[in-house]
Amino acid sequence: MKRILVLIYCLLMQCFVLAQNNAILQLDTGGHKARIWDILVTSDKRFLVSASDDKTIRVWDVDLKKEVRKIIGQIGSGNRGMISAIALSTDDNYLAVGGYFGNNEIRIYDFPTGQLLQTLKGHTNLVLDLDFNNQGNMLVSGAMDRQVIVWNRENGSFKLYKKFLNHSDDVYGVKIFQHNSEYRIVSIGYDQRLNLYSLNPGLIKTIDHSFNLSYVSVSQKYIAVCGKANKISLFDMDLNPIKNIYTKTQPIGLAFSEDGRYLLSGHVGFPPNNNIYDLRKGFKQVTTFNKQHALTQAVAFLDENTAVTGGGENYEIYFWNINTARVEGVIEGKGRKVWSVGIFDNKIGFGYTPMTYTNEKTKLEKYFNLEEFTIKDIQGNEKFKQIPVIYNGLNHTYTLQHTKGGKYGFSDAVLEIRKDGEIYKRIERDATNGYQHRTYGFTENGLIISGGNDGCLNIYNLEGEIVGGCIGHTGTIWSIAVEDNVLVSGSSDQTIKLWNLESLTNQSEIKKLFPLINIFISNDDEWVVWSGKGYYASSIGGDQFVGYHINRGFDNAADYFRSDRFFRTYYQPSLMKNIIRLKSEDKALAFTKTKMRLNEVTIEDILPPKIELNTPEEIVTYKDEVEIDFDVIAQSDFNITDIKIFLNGREIKERGMKVLVEDNSSFEHIRKNIKVPNGSSVLKIVAGNRFAASNPVFIHVKRKGVENMYKPNLYVLSIGVSEYKNIRYKLDFAAADAHSIIEIFKNQTKLYQNISYELKTNIEAKRADILNSIDWLINEATQKDVVIMFIAGHGINDGLNNYYFLSYDSDIESLRSSAVKWTEFKDVITNLPSKVILFVDACHSGNILGSKKRGESDITTAIKDLIAAGTGQVIMTATTDNSAAYEDPSWEHGAFTKALTDGLKYMEADFDKNDIITIKELDFYITKRVKELTKGHQKPTTIVPKSIPDFPIVAK
Predict the structure, then answer these.
(1) Strands of 667-675's sheet, edge to edge?
(2) Is 320 within 8 Å of 302 (Cβ atoms)?
(3) 646, 681, 703: which is the final residue of a domain?
(4) Nearest-CA neighbor of 456 among 466, 470, 467?
(5) How far is CA 630 from the centre of its chain?
(6) How far apart are CA 357 and CA 406, in angstroms?
(7) Which has fewest Cβ within 10 Å: 206, 241, 264, 269?
């Protein structure tokens, strides 16, 4: 079923937008997070293109199942910018896009570059389908304005060629095909009509149906259509009926295989069958794929053996064999629909188990602690509140119950307010206010809250009058909970939002509420919390999921910057906690500024520079040197402060490599010659101003030639403190962990030429001793070497959130003078010319904080500050986010070092059994092993920058 245009109210009640018109905070989970409308395959079968209600077009590498890039344009609040149709020319040069755009235009992109070439204006309502002819010089479009328009490419641009006005309702499907010596067009619509046209003279034939038509596909011999019925109708190329295929489920989305033998259909409803029909066997259904339980309409054939379907509960894209239905790959983001929420004190419970019935109270599986910013499993003893459906007033008892009704006959379109058991008022929903009452209940003071589709979350008084609208969600609201005027909501848009209800009254004046905070939690428990003005806190990897969509106008492609590009300005954990505590961002900003310096700037004012390559992104050479050429373009009034070039993660600081930056002018054709080693290398270019860093640009270089026999030197600094001068700080295995690291690496002569190490444990790990060892690394390591640093012991934050490692002689009452400040480690790690691998196990539990809050022992900010430097070190941490690192006498180590030892010393991380363990193999093994050892309670984190190719760390 195609989307019905949402009109008045919900256009205002959706999609959180920053105050600026052109900078919009967007959630990006690494996959689609809303309905997928279309899927296309490039002619060389290398890439998949998908379009979604989440306002993105994503290009995926078919082999790697990884996103290559996004194509984005002008978006706005509500449905503005949602994509409804895409088409790709057969030569892969032009991508046509239709959607909820300001002028109902069609956007024409240069597909290889993502550049917006032109916008086609001719439709007066939403464009619903697009199709190119086989030569790529004609485009046909169908829209809700009942028009079918043909566009012709002349002199490099598309122009309106012809209109057909033969539909009396929305046109949902169009296809253009060559029949004999002429081009023909088929169109279908909600007038239940199938039309066949010739470019000249026009309409040839019409077939009327008894139901609305939504999808059409054309092969060399057949035309297939389907709509609001449990059947697919097939016709020949002259629109003569051939056959009706009856199905158990309502088919949506249709695609013929390239050779025309197979027909693939998606589904809506139950059973969740995506079906393959073999036309050589009399259109017999031969295969059913049923792993996508929710609506799946984006369907395509990758090749003669593989089908691709996009949809399901969490908007996955599956690759599956058309003969066996065996899954051959899947693309999915890190998010999941939030089906249930609850609130208890400072904890927000949530769950991912789909509900069966409207307003069902589904299982809460985990909770997010709003004071500590931690995630834990719910053990069953927390008394989380979910919203009640009974309200005991002063003189009457009110209850809520949903019932069937409304324009579309949904079973929950009407919400009945019952007073003392009798129906008192009715709240009916339709296309203007969310269609259905998915979840509902009473606040403590008798207000009614109801969540529906399309992000509609409305608040009513006992008379059924709307008094408030919560603007922020973009998907169906599945669950709500209330405590002390704080509303919690969970949605299919994969977010949890908190709202302050204190300003609401029982009066009929409608107030707009915006989220107090927004929460996203990934399926591997990375998280990010953000505010209305764009400030955020996150786990180490959490800020990859939120970023700023920068509009560049209707006639230009948009830009996107991940929030971590603005880390030094907008990463503010203390502010986020104050927002929650004070229930107001403005109050929190005022309070926080009394405690610390806070830059209040807008994203648009501080946009970082943009880097454009003039050389290819992939270079193959036999030479030991490559030339790169790039431009750096300023995008704000703030000066460009630095332009840096990195080779395999480390900044190149040789003479002639530094780019002098004197003002904020753009730089054209910066040319640099860079020496590269044999094999594969990655060059990274980054520019920045004092507030933000640019999106990095990568160049992949493969140098062919004689195999490089050079072996680097290895320097290992291993620090572990179990015995402290203050015996209250005692740990069991930190020193033993440090010894194990030396034992693992000191004999690795197959990979390293010379191996030098320093071991600092217990009384030998005084503050001065550690600083002297850091100086040793600075003095010894060169560009060709490898440095491994291991740190185990206690870590703690001071009142200003500066992180310190506790040396043997540390005193938590005088951290500045007795402990090792994190910046000492950061300075050496970021400035060493060598490759650097950092292992950190410094979040041990223990009664060392006295009356201090446990929340003051968190290494997350310290690690994120190191990552923000952009210098490309590999970091492996035992745990983060206030979680304790586990130790056990049976292991004789902490869990993290136990996993390191098992993986490296005993070669258990050698998954491909080639007697070499690479950094990626080690990452995979440690994550798996620590989870096993701690029964899922400890979560290690690894950061391997894109600028670093996989490399060996130990050999047998």
Answers:
(1) 610-613, 625-633, 667-675
(2) no
(3) 703
(4) 470
(5) 29
(6) 18
(7) 241
Same domain, 315 and 372: no
Strands 755-761, 714-720: pairing is parallel
287-294 LR contacts (CB < 8 Å, sep 24+): 287/322, 287/323, 287/324, 287/325, 288/325, 289/318, 289/320, 289/325, 291/318, 291/320, 291/327, 292/316, 292/318, 293/354
| Residue 11 within a domain | no
Number of domains in the chain: 4
303 and 220 within one domain? yes
Q: Which secondary-structure segment (H or E) carries 198?
A: strand 193-198
3-state secondary structure of 809: coil
- The CATH number of whichever domain residue 430 belongs to comes to 2.40.128.630
The pLDDT score that the predictor gives to residue 655 is 67
Token pair of 94, please? 């032009």
Residue 432 lies in a domain: yes
Distance CA 60, CA 53 (A): 17
Burial of 889 (0-12, 13-18, 19+ CB in 10 A): exposed
Residues in the chain: 956
Selection from 123, 120, 184, 129 nearest residue 153 by Cα? 120
Does 894 lie in the same domain as 843?
A: yes
Same domain, 643 and 738: no
Whether 558 and 695 share a structural domain: no
Say yes or no to pLDDT of 599 above 90.
no
Residue 536 CB contacts under 8 Å (≥ 6 apart), including other chains: 528, 529, 530, 543, 546, 563, 570, 571, 572, 576
The domain containing residue 570 runs over which residues? Answer: 340-595
Nearest to 355 by CA among 380, 378, 338: 338
Number of Cα atoms under 13 Å in the Cβ half of residue 664: 13
Cα angle: 331, vertex 333, 337; to 5 degrees: 120
Using DSSP, state whether 898 is helix, strand or coil.
Answer: helix
787's tokens = 């440095």
Following DSSP, what letter does each residue of 560-618 receive, concatenated? EEEGGGGHHHHB-HHHHHHHHHHT-HHHHHHHHHHHS------GGGSPPPEEEESS-SE
- 440-494 pLDDT, tens digit each: 999 999 999 999 998 899 999 999 999 999 998 988 999 999 999 999 999 999 9
Query: What are the tokens at 398?
Result: 């009110």
CATH code of the domain containing 295: 2.130.10.10
| CA 424 centroid distance within chain | 44
603's CB contacts (< 8 A; 6+ apart) are 18, 20, 23, 534, 548, 550, 566
Tokens of 432: 């203007």
End-to-end, the C-alpha distance of the chain in Å comes to 58
5 in a structural domain: no
Q: Does some domain include residue 14? A: no
What pTM was computed for the model? Answer: 0.86
Per-residue pLDDT tens over the stretch 299-322? 999 999 999 999 998 999 999 999
**How many angstroms separate the most distant Cα atoms in the chain?**
95
Quick check: 80 and 100 in contact, CB under 8 A?
A: yes
**Final residue belonging to a domain, choices 534, 562, 595:** 595
pLDDT tens-digit readout, 496-529: 999 999 988 766 678 899 999 999 999 989 999 9
Q: Which helix (H) or strand (E) holds 896?
A: helix 895-904
Rounded Cα distance between 226 and 263, Å, is: 12
Q: Which element (helix H / strand E) includes 206?
A: strand 203-208
Report the pLDDT value the prediction gives residue 25, as an integer from 0 to 100.
84
CA dist 909 and 465 (Å) reads 62
Tokens of 322: 């058309």
Q: Are residues 517 and 651 in the same domain?
A: no
Q: Which pLDDT score, from 0 to 100, does residue 706 have?
A: 63
pLDDT at position 337 is 94
Amino acid at 74: Q
